[in-house]
Amino acid sequence: MSKHTIGLLLIAVVALGAMTGVAAAEGDLGVTVDDADGEPTVTVTENGTAVENATVNVSVVDPANESYAGASEYTTDANGTVGLSTPEEDVTVNVTAEYENDSTTTTIDLEAPDGLVIDVESTDGEPVVTVTDNDTAVENASVNVTTADGQNVTYADEGDYETDENGTVTLSAAEEDVTIDVTATDENESVSTTVDLETPEGLALDVSNTDGEPVVTVTDDDEAAENASVNVTTADGQNVTYVGEGSYETDENGTVTLNAAEANVTVDVTAGYENDTVSTTVDLTVDGGEAEDQSFGQLVQDFIDRLQDREGGIGAAVSDFVTENNPGNAPDHAGSPSGPDDAGNGSDADNGRNAGNASDGPGNAPDHAGQGNGNDGEQGPPDHTGQGNGNDGEQGPPDHAGPDGDDGDDTKEDDTDDADDADKSGEEGEDGAEDDDDDGNAGNGPGNGNGQGNGNGPQN
Q1: Which H or E run contains 321?
Q2: Cα-to-chain-centroid distance, residue 1
Q3: Cβ(372)–Cβ(443) under 8 Å?
Q4: What fold does the segment set 116-197 form as a domain?
Q5: Strand 246-249, strand 229-234: pairing
Q6: Residue 357, Cα to own-chain centre: how many angstroms?
Q7: DSSP secondary structure string for all residues of 8-41
Q8: Three-class DSSP category at 143
Q9: Following DSSP, what letter does each residue of 394-416 receive, concatenated?
């Protein structure tokens, strides 16, 4: 074969291949299924152009478990489309398109439309009834609301309604827990549901972190109540005052943070919002005894610092705090500043015979000390010391000291003679009590002075 012939043959083969490629491109058959609005539509195209009179075959993938009334053979129209029937239940189908000598297949899930649907939301507030048909809002659908049977309560919004352009009807909140039946009707279709309605909680108040900085939270139907008023007062019948007393307003989270308590205290908290109020009583405790570890001055300063944001003056509050928390305040059992309750003065029933005091506390002479009127705050000598005139605030010598006792701490030298008479003190004690103003007796020495319980009552 000549080279020329071979060349011609090659050109012919290339041309034939090119023609075959064009034919293959022209035979690019496609099929799609659009399931919009629950009405499936099959479209057949070739190279992007609608194919009229193409054959479309629809079959169920799992016929043993599913069925579809639209499973059949169809022919496309001038637009290359075939309309299928709406499935009564969800089903998976194979769709095969054939045209001339070409064919193609696709698998698709067909979903049954929802049809008329009724839904009720916000059952613990103002219930909202929504009616849709194939997921589209139904305007002017009729809605009937009745109280379900077998209850001892009645729902206030029983009656007939009509949906708005959004397919909704808003009902009033239940005054008490109740079950209702709701029926929606559109054209020739209707749907019903039964719903439990709960009474809304309304305004609610909570106080947390009661052993630190208390946080007051105010909610209305479980939603944060911003700008609600909060009033805090110390509960009645207590000897303490809460540092955080006052009026407040909640933030965007419906909360108010209070000052930590300086001492264990019970407070009353009241919240007001719109036309509703709610109150609670809370016990606040001191965390870890921090207040006891601080100096009184620091406590007062901290108290003042915490009052800076308080409405109104702070003078009265500071005064009350200082009075109630002053560490110098004597406890109840301490008695009056002049001494314990049982430390009688000279006006007691014994008329000063026992040095004006029945107590052995500081400054109170014991019973045997006689009627000394010493004013140097020291005890006088006991009865057996006689009527010594020592004025140096020191005791004379006891009986066993003898006449020669010269200890400067017990008596002066010129009191030696008086010490010799100490043995007679037991007999002369009562007489000495009568003469102590003139004789400078033991009362003028280190006797019972003007201590916490004085001995200057009337003498018998």
Answers
A1: helix 315-325
A2: 104
A3: yes
A4: Immunoglobulin-like (2.60.40)
A5: antiparallel
A6: 58
A7: HHHHHHHHHHHHHHHHHHHT-EEEEEE-GGG--E
A8: strand
A9: -PPP-GGG-TT---TTT--GGGH
pLDDT on residue 115: 84
Residue 384 has pLDDT above 90, yes or no: no
Structure confidence by residue, pLDDT tens digits, 81-113? 999 998 888 899 999 999 999 999 999 999 888
Residue among 123, 145, 147, 121 at smallest CA distance from 132 = 121
Report, in angstroms and rounded to the nearest whole number, the Rg of the chain calculated over CA atoms: 54
Q: Residue 244: which H helix or E strand, with range?
A: none
**CA–CA distance, 238 with 241 (Å, rounded to integer):** 8
Three-state DSSP at 146 gives strand
Q: How many other CB atoms sit within 10 Å of the CB of residue 378?
A: 18
What is the Cα–Cα distance from 413 to 397, expressed in whole angstroms? 11
Backbone angles phi, psi at 80, to 5 degrees: 75, 20
| Residue spans per domain, the chain | 28-110, 116-197, 222-329, 341-460
Other CB atoms within a 10 A radius of the CB of residue 388 amount to 30
Residue type for position 195: V
Q: Cβ(359)–Cβ(340) under 8 Å?
A: yes
Asked if 28-110 and 116-197 have one fold, the answer is yes
Q: For 28-110, CATH number?
A: 2.60.40.10
* Residue 23, pLDDT score: 38
3-state SS, residue 218 = strand
Tokens of 359: 């107590």
Query: Which tokens go with 277?
Result: 């109020």
